[in-house]
């Protein structure tokens, strides 16, 4: 063999070795197919977030046992309690004071004692009342203290208590007894004896403090369908204010535009032939208005999102972490989802982000509809967040979390899988650019978002509550409304209050207004409020002074007082409004987070209304106040049944205190006006019925933080874009081989009803 041949073979061998080394090095950058990788972990100790954790079922039971043994009064289980009894209405977490929590989280202080807040109805007392106790320390309670006067400035009158399930059952029994007095009318109008009619409450209950008088609306009820769309035209007014159920009375009856003193009078007029009756057929299940049963056989399945190498987020106890985000999550049985200690890249952005209230206010020419102003917190936004349907309410492979609550019972209840957490690929770039000049390249990043979701079913409506965390450092809060519309019986000038959506069904106009608390801590607790907007100035061009230029300029303003920072609903608001820190970023601008509201709210109730102060938070699309421990919520569950003397009046929070370099809270109202129409049958769709707000970094960073994302994509015209090591998108073909192992479908959401 010649020397030349040897050299050639040696060169080929070296080239082969070099190529193999390159391939091996490239493969090291690619995770092995189908390998589940552990999600990124944060430095914060998992146990610290437990300071915000909802009560466990065992802790709730311990509180009940303690109260039963230490109050010295007889207690009847709320599910059986009459108005004249004492009972435990609810038990929830007593969130510790912020100062105590921050000493623990940030300064190595002692962990605040874990406590519960218990609400009790005392009907078996000389002066019936509602009392709230703080009970602690958990898990083994040893003390309780009455905090009612401290929280509310006085005792809570008994008539303000929410209506319990037992009270509703007793009301239904009264209505059934009264309906028996009009048998021939019911047969003629409804093909019914009354026992198969559904009965729906309205609220509030009267016109002045102390009233407990409620209109109830009657509907045809067909199993498996939404009765809300089948009113029969009959409504009854029940006085249930007396502590003795035997003294409750039916005060008025409404039918098809007319009012009667009793069902007996209604029957007499029918028998006499002077009552105009609309004869309704008993609806059939296969043809009833509002059936959700599929009309076609199932087709092929749609796209299925899945994590080829396992979730990239981590859920431990009540804390979720994801790509720099850390969030403690929980659920109030009354007000629903609440988040605490929201951090990005180790820095706290938001101390508390919580839902406060959901208002649905109706119009109609029927008494039930025209008087309805539901304050859903009093019914239980969190309590009625039931099990989520895997693969529809949330992605099939999402993480599902159980929530426990204790309301109207001595035994804790569990809504299994009622909160879900998942990473969402929005199929939209978070950012991208294709360069077609000077040099040719492409750079971009997918918009992947962490989502925390729960869904509340509040009588007819379903509210989808979303909290989303973006790679840009932004927080997005969104609510969608779906479910059934509420309706009235169509008669007279009904279309002045909505649209006809069935033979005898009026879809009644209403507004949805939602209120949130956002305790922002931007680069520390001490923040100020800054607005920015544009104006035009007319100037001569400086190079010739012959022409005029309309030049936009930026108008900045620091708001000094709370009154300046209360922006009326639907009034113009500065386009940029930010919580600013005293500390600058690299470019000498204050580190800030901007509040951006997306809302189509209806008109707020006129301030001349006798009940307006109970929902005075709705006056403002945004109000910024100094944070106070004694102003933890913008409303109260007791406002629903006494809106004329509200237990909590948000308008009183705004008293022109200074808001410069203070611990501030943003109170945000979003909502929309809904005029039901034919396409709301059978259900309102989520399309176009979503509102919310963003918290967006504004000079908080020195650049877009998403540039550090490991999901970033970049390639140039000089690269092999099909090489997996150079372009992550080229790795997807192998990842698709990692089909997920889906757990069997299961749903237990009907078990707790």
Automatic annotation (TrEMBL):
Its cofactor is Cu cation. Residues 161-258 form the Copper amine oxidase N3-terminal domain. Residues 307-706 form the Copper amine oxidase catalytic domain. Contains 1 topaquinone per subunit. Pfam families: Cu_amine_oxid, Cu_amine_oxidN2, Cu_amine_oxidN3. The keyword Metal-binding applies. Topaquinone (TPQ) is generated by copper-dependent autoxidation of a specific tyrosyl residue. Residues 290-310 are annotated as: Disordered. One of its GO terms (biological process) is amine metabolic process. One of its GO terms (molecular function) is primary methylamine oxidase activity. The active site is at residues 376, 461. Residues 75-143 form the Copper amine oxidase N2-terminal domain. Its EC number is 1.4.3.-. PANTHER family: COPPER AMINE OXIDASE, RETINA-SPECIFIC COPPER AMINE OXIDASE. This is Amine oxidase. It comes from Regulus satrapa (Golden-crowned kinglet). The gene is Aoc3_1.
């Amino acid at each position: 063999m010649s020397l030349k041949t040897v050299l050639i073979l040696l060169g080929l061998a070296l080239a082969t070795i070099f190529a193999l080394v390159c391939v091996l090095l490239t493969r090291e950058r690619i995770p092995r197919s189908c390998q589940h990788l552990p999600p990124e972990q944060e430095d914060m100790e998992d146990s610290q977030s437990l300071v915000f954790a909802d009560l466990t079922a065992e802790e709730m039971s311990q509180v009940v046992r303690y109260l039963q043994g230490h109050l010295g009064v007889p207690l009847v289980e709320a599910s059986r309690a009459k108005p004249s009894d004492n009972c435990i209405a609810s038990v929830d977490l007593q969130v510790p004071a912020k100062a105590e929590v921050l000493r623990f989280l940030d300064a190595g202080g002692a962990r605040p004692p874990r406590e519960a807040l218990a609400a009790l109805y005392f009907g078996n007392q000389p002066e019936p009342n509602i009392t709230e106790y703080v009970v602690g320390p958990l898990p083994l309670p040893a003390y309780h203290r009455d905090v009612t006067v401290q929280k509310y400035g006085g005792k809570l009158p008994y008539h303000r208590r929410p209506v319990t399930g037992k009270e509703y059952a007793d009301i239904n029994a009264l209505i059934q007894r009264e309906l028996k007095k009009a048998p021939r009318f019911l047969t003629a109008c409804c093909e019914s004896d009354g026992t198969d009619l559904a009965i729906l409450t309205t609220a509030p209950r009267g016109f002045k403090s102390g009233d407990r008088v409620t209109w109830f609306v009657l509907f045809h009820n067909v199993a498996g369908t939404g009765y809300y769309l089948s009113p029969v035209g009959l409504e009854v007014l029940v006085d249930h204010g007396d502590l003795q159920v035997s003294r409750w009375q039916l005060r008025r009856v409404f039918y098809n535009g007319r009012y009667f003193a009793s069902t007996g009078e209604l029957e007499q007029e029918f028998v006499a032939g002077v009552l105009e009756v609309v004869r309704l057929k008993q609806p059939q299940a296969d043809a009833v208005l509002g059936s959700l049963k599929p009309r076609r056989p199932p087709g092929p399945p749609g796209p299925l999102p899945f994590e080829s190498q396992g979730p990239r987020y981590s859920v431990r106890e009540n804390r979720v972490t994801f790509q720099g985000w850390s969030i403690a999550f929980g659920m109030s049985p009354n007000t629903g989802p609440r988040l605490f200690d929201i951090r990005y890249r180790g820095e706290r952005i938001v101390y508390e982000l919580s839902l406060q209230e959901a208002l649905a206010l109706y119009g109609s020419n029927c008494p039930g509809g025209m008087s309805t102003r539901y304050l859903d917190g009093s019914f239980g936004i969190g309590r009625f967040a039931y099990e989520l349907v895997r693969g529809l309410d949330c992605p099939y492979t999402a993480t599902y979390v159980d929530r426990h609550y204790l309301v109207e019972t001595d035994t804790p209840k569990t809504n299994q899988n009622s909160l879900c957490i998942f990473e969402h690929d929005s199929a939209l770039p978070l950012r991208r650019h294709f360069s077609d000049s000077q040099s040719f390249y492409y750079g971009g990043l997918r918009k992947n978002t962490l989502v925390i979701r729960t869904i509340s079913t509040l009588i007819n409506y379903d509210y989808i509550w979303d909290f989303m965390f973006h790679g840009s450092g932004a927080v997005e809060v969104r609510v969608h409304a779906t479910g059934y519309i509420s309706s009235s019986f169509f008669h007279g000038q009904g279309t002045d209050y909505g649209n006809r959506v069935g033979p005898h069904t009026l879809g009644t106009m209403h507004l949805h207004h939602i209120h949130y608390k956002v305790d922002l801590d931007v680069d520390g607790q001490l923040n100020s409020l800054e607005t920015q907007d544009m104006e035009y100035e007319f100037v001569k061009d400086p190079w010739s002074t012959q022409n005029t230029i309309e030049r936009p300029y930026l108008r900045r303003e620091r708001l000094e007082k709370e009154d300046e920072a209360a922006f009326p609903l639907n009034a113009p608001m500065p386009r940029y409004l930010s919580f600013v820190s005293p500390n600058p970023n690299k470019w000498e601008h204050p580190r800030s987070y901007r509040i951006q509201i997306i809302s189509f709210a209806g008109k707020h109730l006129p301030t001349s209304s006798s009940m307006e102060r109970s929902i005075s938070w709705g006056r403002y699309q945004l109000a910024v106040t100094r944070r106070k421990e004694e102003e933890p919520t913008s409303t109260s569950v007791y406002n629903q049944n006494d809106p004329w003397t509200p237990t909590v009046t948000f308008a009183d929070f705004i008293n022109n205190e200074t808001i410069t370099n203070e611990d501030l809270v943003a109170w945000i109202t979003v909502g929309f006006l809904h005029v039901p129409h034919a396409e709301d049958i059978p259900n309102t769709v989520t399309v176009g019925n979503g509102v919310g707000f963003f918290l967006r970094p504004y000079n908080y960073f020195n650049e877009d933080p998403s540039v550090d994302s490991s999901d970033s994509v970049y390639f140039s015209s000089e690269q092999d874009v099909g090489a997996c090591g150079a372009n992550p998108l080229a790795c997807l073909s192998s990842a698709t081989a990692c089909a997920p192992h889906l757990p069997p479908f299961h749903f237990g959401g009907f078990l707790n009803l």
